Structures are given as structure tokens and as C-alpha cells.
Amino acid sequence: MKPTIHLLHGFIGSGKTTLARRLERECGAERFSHDEWMVRLYGWNPPEEHFKEYQLQIEHLIWAEARLAVRAGRDVILDFGFWTRESRDEARNRVRSIGATAKFYAVSCPRRTMRARTLERSKRPATDSLWIDGAAFDKLMAAFEPMQDDEAFVRIDGTK
Fold first, then answer.
1. Distances in Å between the alpha carbon of 115 and those of 20, 49, 145?
2. Measured at the alpha carbon of residue 73, what is the angle toward residues 71 and 75, in degrees to the nearest 5?
3. Residue 126 confidence (pLDDT)
4. What's the start-to-end Cα distance of the chain, in Å?
5. Residues near 92 by Cβ (< 8 Å), separated by ≥ 6?
6. Can you give the CATH number for the domain in which 90 is found?
7. What is the mean pLDDT of the chain?
8. 137 is in which domain, residue-wise?
């Protein structure tokens, strides 16, 4: 049986990391969190002008690690967000190319809940999330593309 790569789609504060940790415990999969790597390598509030560059570097590193895990027969969890259809399609192709099965989860909850969670955790430095203020939250929300009906995914209520 092919290893599975669990891909977590959702906006900031939707509950992706909570689900990723649960899957890690339940499935024994290797978990990779974009935000945790970003904080470790570049800090809690990396400069906006370098963010895209840092993001691409981290994605490259994590995909390389995911490939190694799959080759070793292990399942993987990618706690990335996959905000755009293009990024999800690219992820599906990458998963196929490394010989695994893709399983997407769409994690969602009300916008006010996501915003409140994000602003609350941004009050103090963290090791697993980035600093995001209200203006950044709103700006980033404009770039978010929800899963479409023609995409195979498991719907998860991140409210809890």
C-alpha cells in the first residue's frame, strides 16, 4: 500500500495545526508545519519583503523531507494551508510524482473565530505560529480560495 500524504487546506486560525497534531497521534505520520519551520528559521515576524522567498525555501525543504519519508514507507502530514487551487493542483501532482496517495482535508470555521484565534495567539511570541495583526489577516483573506466541489477532500469543522 502506498504511503499517504495528508494535505491540510484552510485559512489562518481555522484549526489546521490542531488537526495535524491529531492526525500525527492517530496515524503515526510525520508532520511538517510550514509555520513552525518559518519561526525556527526566520523568527516569529519575518520581514514582509522576504516572506515569499522564505516561504519558497521552506516549501522546498519540506517537500524534500516528505519525499524521503515516503520513500521510507511513512505517511506524511503537510500543514501548509494550500490557499489557492493552483497550489493544491501542484501538490496533487507532487504527491503522485513521489509515489504517494494525496488526501486533502478542508478545515474551516467562521471568519470571526479564525480572526479571534489569530489575534489572540499573536499577542505573544510562539514556536508554532507567525505574528499576524488584523490588517494582515484581512489582506491575506483576500488571497484565500476555498476548496471547490470538484476537488476530492474531507471537510473538517475547525470550530471545536
1. 20, 23, 17
2. 105
3. 79
4. 32
5. 102
6. 3.40.50.300
7. 95
8. 4-157
**6 three-class SS:** strand
Helices and strands (H and E) in the chain: how many:
6, 5
Q: In the numeric block, which cell numbers belong to residue 39? A: 519561526
**Residue-level pLDDT at 6:** 98
pLDDT of residue 114: 97
| Set of cell numbers at residue 90 | 501542484
Report the pLDDT value the prediction gives residue 19, as an integer from 0 to 100: 97
- What gap in Å lies between CA 80 and CA 16, rounded to an integer? 8
pLDDT for position 127: 80
Domain count along the chain: 1
Could you tell me if 106 and 97 are in contact, meaning their C-beta atoms sit under 8 angstroms apart? no
Distance between CA atoms of 140 and 8, rounded to whole angstroms? 17
Cα separation, 145 vs 84, in Å, equals 5
72, three cell numbers:
521510507
Euclidean distance between CA atoms 81 and 69, whole angstroms: 20
Give CA–CA dist 144/10, Å, rounded.
Answer: 8
* pLDDT < 70 positions in the chain: none
SS3 104: strand
